[in-house]
From TrEMBL:
PANTHER family: GLUTAMYL-TRNA(GLN) AMIDOTRANSFERASE SUBUNIT A, MITOCHONDRIAL (PTHR11895:SF7), TRANSAMIDASE (PTHR11895). InterPro entries: Amidase (IPR000120), Amidase_dom (IPR023631), AS_sf (IPR036928). Belongs to the amidase family. Residues 32-430 form the Amidase domain. It comes from Arthrobacter liuii. This is Amidase. The lineage of its organism: Bacteria, Bacillati, Actinomycetota, Actinomycetes, Micrococcales. It holds the Pfam family Amidase.
Length: 446
């Protein structure tokens, strides 16, 4: 139990797959599924506060319309699946305020591309979830369902909390530093950040041209995979890269890497990852020690610089017009970014490109790298959203990454591990993540 007396959440089962199966088989209508989720939201939302906008009447009406679609329609592969939309992503039928008072009541003219694809596939858009201010670091109102006294992480705070609490099976998030991986880790669920550009960003509020990536929060790898298969870009679907070449019967190979910041992880996190490696060595999966190139040591600082520079370019003029409506933490980011020279920004980008060129060699012979997702358990308090330290370098490199709820901290709270794949190997990363989750369940059996 958590300190609040609520059951601790964990990513068990595939509630999204269960919904899709129920609708396709005719066991439940979309209206019944919608009402069940609305009932859960009504019961838990006063404590967790995952939503910034929710219209139950509109959800019920949309569900009734979806019940007109023949079950099992191949054109509607997500028929009846409730999905939450991070409030950084435009919806034409609901306000989209980007977590900022500057956009209070804002109504976009059209859906973001990813929302349109979800609707076309039969998904049931179920409310807008809380984001931090412009997806930066000033927290919203959301609490962690595992422990209401702790942050759910950010910036995809509401999406992670809603999924972890069982309010929704799947929700959209975005990541510019660690905003999918970190909240997934803190809330004990799966967070998938695909390769940069694999999901269309049209209609997603831009804060960093180089870093912004649309991702998914779910309770299982299978649910994330099912939604990703629908919303991914055609270029992502056809890239043909599936990881290193190996024999048909070869075991999954996971490289355990220690980034330069390794010692900044909590001792329990480091010990948990080391123990995981030793357990894998006794199984059918292969665990290898993988050294990161020395140039990678500078990537975290480079990501901070690139993010500050691009966020300042995107937001400074807009925020300076009404500074009283902007948090001090964001204003500090904008000031810091404005002080960065073009030469320093270019040097950071050059480092990123140089390290990207090393990725084929780094991933040669392994399906994925396993690194920390977070420093440790979700910090106590709601004044901050935690440190994205272990996500920054991989976001700058634009690699796909996924957080898996495989560890527990000293207080019994969830701590994710991060699997990272080579560029454009999203399918292989998801397959490897599923293999690791299956192994973890089998290993836990008495």
């Amino acid at each position: 139990m958590s300190s609040t007396g609520r059951p601790q959440t964990q990513a068990t089962g595939s509630p999204g797959a269960a919904v899709l199966d129920d609708v396709a088989s005719g066991r439940r209508t979309v209206a019944e599924i919608a009402q069940a989720h609305l009932d859960t939201i009504r019961a838990l939302e006063p404590e967790i506060q995952a939503f910034v906008h929710l219209d139950p009447r509109a959800v019920r009406a949309a569900a009734r319309e979806l019940d007109r679609v023949p079950p099992g329609s191949p054109e509607r592969p997500l028929l009846g699946l409730p999905v939450g939309i991070k409030d950084l992503i435009d919806t034409d039928d609901q306000p989209t305020e980007y977590g900022s008072r500057l956009f209070a009541g804002h109504r976009p003219a059209r859906d973001a591309a990813v929302v349109r694809m979800l609707r076309d596939a039969g998904a049931l858009v179920t409310g807008k979830t809380v984001t931090t201010e412009f997806a930066c670091f000033s927290p919203g109102k959301t609490r962690n369902p595992v422990d209401l006294e702790r942050t759910p992480g950010g910036s995809s705070s509401g999406s992670a909390a809603a999924v972890a609490a069982g309010m929704l099976p799947v929700a959209l998030g975005t990541q510019t530093a660690g905003s999918v991986i970190r909240p997934a880790s803190f809330c004990g669920i799966v967070g998938f950040k695909p390769t940069f550009g694999a999901i269309d960003r049209d209609g997603v509020f831009p804060i960093s041209e180089t870093l912004d990536t649309v991702g998914l929060l779910s309770r299982s790898v299978a649910d994330a995979s099912a939604v990703f298969d629908v919303v991914r870009s055609s270029a992502s679907r056809g890239n043909g890269r599936t990881g290193f070449v190996r024999g048909v019967d070869a075991a999954t190979r996971i490289g355990f890497a220690r980034p330069v910041e390794w010692e900044r992880a909590d001792p329990s996190t480091r010990e948990g990852i080391d123990a995981l490696r030793l357990k894998l060595m006794d199984s059918g999966l292969e665990a290898l020690e993988t050294a990161l190139p020395p140039d990678f040591d500078g990537l975290t600082a480079a990501q901070c610089l690139v993010m500050d520079f691009e966020v300042s370019k995107a937001l400074k003029s807009r925020c300076e017009k009404n500074p009283e409506m902007v948090s001090e933490s964001l204003l500090e980011v904008l000031r810091r970014g404005a002080s960065i020279s073009v030469a320093d920004y270019s040097a950071a980008m050059e480092l990123a490109e140089r390290c990207k060129a090393m990725l084929p060699d780094l991933f040669d012979g392994v399906d994925a790298l396993l690194v920390p997702a977070v420093i440790g358990e979700a910090p106590r308090g709601l004044q901050a959203t935690g440190d994205p330290l272990f996500c920054r370098s991989w976001t700058l490199l634009q690699c796909p990454a996924i957080s898996l709820p495989l560890l527990r901290g000293p207080n019994g709270l969830p701590v994710g591990v991060q699997l990272v794949g080579n560029l454009n190997t999203d399918d292989n990363l998801l397959k490897t993540a599923q293999t690791l989750m299956d192994w973890s369940v089998e290993f836990a059996q008495p």
